[in-house]
Amino acid sequence: MWGNWIRRGIKYEVVPIYDIYGPTVTDPDIEALVVSRETISNAHSINEERRKHSFKPLEMAIIEVISSDNSSLDEAQLKNLKISSTFIRKYLSGQIIDRSDKRT
Q: What backbone phi and psi angles, to 5 degrees, belong to 56?
């Protein structure tokens, strides 16, 4: 699994997420959340909900959004050029051939 690629022995659990909170507001043992500039407001909302449940706030690891074309994106480029899970799914399914393909 991909977690072992990062570091052997790391504890992880893959779960479906249907809203911005996922299991973060029901599982007090979650310790951290990886977010981008684009999703940091959601992380703050998650921590507010955790406080209501008397859970510790999550440590936030803020990462830069990446692009296959550019190592750093400004706000104007973010929506169209970022590599996202949606982009990856569409690319793997053949819905996107390359970045010049406007079917998104």
A: -65, 145
> Cα torsion for 21, 25, 27, 32, to the nearest 10°?
70
Task: Specify the pTM.
Answer: 0.60
Residue for token pair 């043992």:
29
What is the amino acid identity at position 26? T
pLDDT in tens, 11-22: 777 788 889 999
Closest CA to 87 of 74, 76, 98: 98
Mapped onto helix, strand or coil, the DSSP state of residue 29 is: coil
101 burial via Cβ count (<10 Å: 0-12, 13-18, 19+):
exposed
